[in-house]
TrEMBL record:
It comes from the Bacteria. This is Mu-like prophage FluMu N-terminal domain-containing protein. Residues 78-126 form a coiled coil. Keywords: Coiled coil. Residues 136-146 have a biased composition (Basic and acidic residues). Residues 7-50 form the Mu-like prophage FluMu N-terminal domain. The keyword Coiled coil applies. It holds the Pfam family FluMu_N. The keyword Glycosyltransferase does not apply.
Length: 154
């Protein structure tokens, strides 16, 4: 029957070899009976006899352990991506609110401009109504100066 040895601390040395904290399987007859007795007596080592077919399960256990590590890594990445997604959704919501506020401010500004243009037109009409029309009788053009300039001689 094959023997499986697992050290409680990685690199623990006994019988001239370092033992791993990962289960190692050794073929039947790898250790002499006296060495095997010494390994079994050591409290820092777990020594078990396994049936021939069960020794192959160690490889499957290692594969399952690696697969579990990958699943945990992927789960960690997924959690990080979900957190980032929430941050982005929050930013998008804030940008939407800011856009609505800017649209509202733009509409108020457009209304104010339209009101001011109407007021300017009304004031221009008032200025036009208060400006005297050119005198038709004197036949002076409207842009003629009404004051006479004096000529100075030296």
């Amino acid at each position: 029957m094959p023997i499986q040895i697992t050290a409680k601390r990685d690199g623990f040395r006994r019988c001239g070899m370092a033992h791993s904290d990962k289960t190692q399987t050794y073929a039947d007859g790898h250790f002499s009976p006296s060495v095997l007795a010494e390994l079994k007596a050591e409290s820092m080592l777990i020594v078990t006899h396994v049936p021939d077919g069960q020794a192959e399960n160690t490889d499957q256990s290692e594969e399952l352990t690696l697969a579990l590590a990958q699943v945990l890594e992927i789960q960690g990445s997924m959690i990080a991506l979900q957190a980032r997604n929430q941050e982005l959704e929050s930013s998008l919501l804030q940008l939407s609110e800011d856009a609505e506020a800017l649209k509202s401010a733009n509409e108020r500004a457009s209304t104010t401009i339209a009101d001011q243009l109407l007021e300017i037109d009304a004031l221009n009409a008032q200025v036009t109504s208060l400006t005297p029309a050119p005198d038709e009788a004197s036949k002076e053009p409207a842009d003629t100066k009404t004051t006479k300039s004096t000529k100075t001689t030296k």
